[in-house]
Amino acid sequence: MAEPTHRPEKGRARLLERMVRSPLNYWGGFLLDGGVSLVFIAAGLRQSPVPWLARGAFLGAGCCAYTFIEYAVHRWIYHGRRESVSRLHTEHHLHPRRLIGAPVFFQVGICVAVWMLTAFAVGRSSAALFSGSALLGAVVHGALHHLMHSGGIRVEGLLGDLKRHHFLHHSDASRNFGVTTTFWDHLLGTRG
After folding, report:
1. What is the pLDDT of residue 8?
2. Helix (H) and strand (E) counts for the chain?
3. Among residues 158, 114, 162, 160, which one has the least CA distance to residue 136?
């Protein structure tokens, strides 16, 4: 029997690659991630039974946790062995001004998974604060990264330091995986 000429997984991979290169996906990710993060944060603030100081701690913890998620995804997934993901990220390295972004549902999916996991430990409203602020960290990361490559950030001050840090990564992809912070690169020995 002859093998089928069209394999569904190949078609899905091509669709996913087209999506990742779509400006609608790129800009839509900012809108979706920003909107969902604010809904999570608002719901967490409104429903939380914990004192305001604890609410602030969950918001801060989510932002801090995102910095590690950013580092880990960039280092071990985007520069990992998964060919389709690393190939698209390599395209970003070759053409840094192209609007290439993770599928629009990727960040929200991670946010919901984090919320579900942390809800068992700290309750639904505190988990909403934590995961919502982590997703907001992804929006900040995306905005900073976009501004770095579009020329919207100069080379002076803290943002300039982050830009130089990131641009060094583009010249040596084994270093400087952080975009919003250099902390994890310092801690894990990948600062270049």
Report:
1. 57
2. 8, 0
3. 114
C-beta neighbour count of 125 within 10 angstroms = 20
Counted residue by residue, the chain has a size of: 192
- Output the average pLDDT for the chain: 89
The reported pTM is 0.86
Interacting residues of 97 by C-beta distance below 8 A, sequence separation 6+:
149, 150
d(CA 18, CA 100): 10
- pLDDT tens, position by position, 38-76: 999 999 999 999 999 999 999 999 999 999 999 999 999
The pLDDT score that the predictor gives to residue 96 is 85
| pLDDT greater than 60 at residue 12 | yes
Q: Kindly report, residue by residue over 85-125, the tens digit of the pLDDT.
A: 777 788 888 888 888 888 888 889 988 999 999 999 999 99
- Measured between alpha carbons, how far is 51 from 34 in angstroms, rounded to an integer? 25
* Count of Cβ atoms closer than 10 Å to residue 126 Cβ: 24
- Are the C-beta atoms of residues 78 and 85 closer than 8 Å to each other? yes
Measured over all CA atoms, what is the biggest interatomic distance in the chain, rounded to whole angstroms?
68
The whole-angstrom distance between residue 148's C-alpha and the CA centroid of its chain comes to 15
How many C-beta atoms surround the C-beta of residue 71 within 10 A? Answer: 22
